[in-house]
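Check the record.
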Amino acid sequence: MSLSSLSLRSRFILACIAVQALLLLALLFNTHRIWSEMSQEQEAAHIQALSSFIKCGVLTLDDRRRSS
C-alpha cells in the first residue's frame, strides 16, 4: 500500500497525526529541558544552603574554642 493509493482524506489524517506526533516530541523535549534546569537550580540552592550551615557550624566551633 503506497501513500499515493490512499484517499485524500486518509492522507490528510496521516499528515495530522504526523504533525501531532512532532508537536508531542517537541513538548516532551522542552519539558525535559525545563525540568533539568529547575533541578539544577534547586540542587545549587541546596548546596549553597548546606555550605552556609557548615560555615555556621565551623564558626560556632571556633567561637567556642576561643572562649574556652
